[in-house]
Specification:
493 residues; BirA Bifunctional Protein, domain 2; Rossmann fold; globular; RNA-binding
RNA sequence: GCGGGAAUAGCUCAGCGGUAGAGCGCCAGCCUUCCAAGCUGGGGGUCGCGGGUUCGAAUCCCGUUUCCCGCUCCA
């Protein structure tokens, strides 16, 4: 799957546009068009429903993007959410300054007539005594001075730009949850373990954004902070470790449940050396994007780091009282954190198919019906017959009360089907002459319409009175097309 | 930031000193009883932007911006 093909389709059909395109575009920002906004809503809606509403141990939250600046001091983002970078002037490779010292050094030693040695971190050369000053990779180039990046967007609260009013656009939604931990606990009388979920925008001044909506400076997260009593054990294991594995499986299952092939998913556990400052263990779910295996979501065990930090900086107690053990505990936190935009991209990529139908190429997005931006398209077979058109509009209006439904009569039926295939509409409903009859010939209509399924292109004849029930089963009750279709006669294709 | 590539119609691209083009798509009409059919007509581009060379620049030169691919980071 080529990303450019998808980018082109997304633009042409109104899923995703480049931000500020008429001004030349701006790197790393994208706008969701009429179909994209529906798709994105659907991704968020099913996630919220599956992980919040249907679970007894989860509640939701919507915290503000701008917060008290001390939040980011407590979280560590002001001090450590930076990546000083150095470049080799010779081979042009780039390194994180804090990691250069730990890398073995390729040294061309002049004392031994330019022989090449690999010297471990911090060690001097045995022959000339030199310590590393040059590129660890090529051993020849001077390194540039470290350039400091802070990945947080600065902004000012209030109209006056002064240091006192400096704050940040949140770089993650998680901190909004931590600072509300006690509020939620008091308001909902929760017992451990329980979780708080949030969906919202986050902002990071990425060094290198790119790969379409994969890495952007403004993006949307779906995050859960799941609070666990670290003193509990489950099946002989610490509860946080046990439940961490449970979350990993549930998150992976969520993606496959909505159409992502398990062949395109892979787990990656961060080596200890790469763990973030707050993490005890982090496992990523990787997806096979066109540019390679990359992170779709991360599931971290953040321990009690965040709650302890906020307790320390705010002076407020952020604990839960364990009635059994009669003690205050600072919960451990499991954090399944997904990118809405990355999830959406994975769903798009996995749905995209090019098929051969009657020697013609058919482009189809095989979205899970829950994700499809449009559920039903109502199409008239002939638009010169006013009864057909009128019945079509009537059906659209009726169905649109329950499902996203469009009406289109601007082309021949074959083209209309292809258009709907290309945006992933799972069902088309066609009104034809037999539906309404022919008054001039004295023929009565049969009151039936054709329903056509996207992937199989099969068609069935369904009485208009049964249409709502059929779509209710297909779209709301999760019935399979095969099960529903066998109850109705096939229509000619 | 560094290196490489690119920018012409909604999309894919041709044109490479002499009146801006093609295919597809889109819109309107005709036709059409179920999978991108056909016919007729139509809209749409100051050729990324700025400067220079020239009688004349989409085309040559300089600058600049943006995008794409690598190096690095994360959702």
């Amino acid at each position: 799957m080529n990303m450019d093909v998808l980018v082109s389709l997304c633009k042409r059909r109104g899923f995703i546009f480049q931000s500020s395109e008429i001004y030349g575009g701006t790197g790393s920002c994208w706008d969701y068009g009429p179909l994209g906004v529906e798709l994105k809503h659907n991704v968020k809606r099913v996630w919220w429903r599956d992980f919040v509403q249907r679970r007894a141990d989860m509640v939701g939250l919507d915290a503000s993007i701008l917060m008290h600046p001390t939040v980011w001091k407590a979280s560590g983002h002001v001090d450590s959410f930076t990546d000083p970078m150095v470049d080799c002037r010779e081979c042009k490779r780039r390194f994180r300054a804090d990691q250069v010292d730990d890398m073995p050094w390729v040294h061309y030693c002049e004392a031994t007539k330019g022989n090449k040695f690999t010297i471990a971190a911090g060690e001097p050369c045995k022959h000339c005594g030199a310590r590393r000053t040059l590129c660890p990779e090529c051993g020849k180039g001077q390194l540039t001075a470290p350039r400091q990046f802070n990945l947080m967007f600065k902004t000012f609260m209030g109209p006056v730009e002064e240091e006192a009013s400096l704050t940040y656009l949140r770089p993650e939604t998680a901190q909004g949850i931590f600072v509300n931990f006690d509020n939620v606990l008091q308001a909902t009388r929760r017992k451990l373990p329980f979780g708080i979920a949030q969906i919202g925008k986050a902002f990071r001044n990425e060094i290198t954004p790119g790969n379409f909506i994969f890495r952007t400076r403004e993006f949307e997260q779906m995050e859960i902070e799941y609070f666990v009593n670290p003193h509990d054990t489950i099946e002989g294991r610490p509860a946080d470790e046990y439940l961490h594995d449970v979350w990993i499986e549930q998150c992976k299952a969520w993606f496959t449940g909505y159409g992502v092939s398990s062949d395109h998913l892979r787990l990656h556990q961060h080596p200890d050396a790469e763990l973030a400052h707050y993490s005890k263990r982090t496992v990523d779910i990787l997806y096979q994007f066109p540019m390679g295996w990359s992170e779709l979501m991360g599931i971290a065990n953040r321990t009690d780091f965040d709650l302890k930090q906020h307790a320390k900086f705010s002076g407020k107690s952020l604990t839960w009282f364990d009635e059994e053990r009669k003690e205050h505990v600072v919960p451990f936190v499991l954090e399944p954190s997904a990118g809405v935009d990355r999830a959406l991209l994975a769903f798009l990529l996995d749905a995209y198919r090019e098929e051969e139908v009657r020697n013609e190429k058919r482009v189809v997005l095989r979205f899970h019906p829950e994700l499809a931006p449009v559920k039903i398209a109502v199409l008239p077979l002939l638009k010169k017959r006013s009864e057909i058109v009128a019945r079509g509009h009537e059906l659209r209006d009726r169905l649109a009360r329950r499902w996203t439904t469009v009406y289109d009569d601007t082309a021949a039926i074959g083209r209309l089907y292809r258009r709907q295939d290309e945006v992933g509409t799972p069902y088309c409903l066609t009104v034809d002459v037999k539906t309404v009859g022919d008054a001039e010939k004295g023929e009565a209509g049969d009151g039936k319409v054709t329903i056509r399924e996207r992937d199989s292109m099969e068609q069935i004849r369904v009485p208009i009175d049964a249409v709502d029930t059929v779509f209710g089963r297909l779209l709301d009750a999760g019935a399979s097309w095969a099960d529903v279709a066998r109850e109705f006669p096939r229509a000619e294709g």
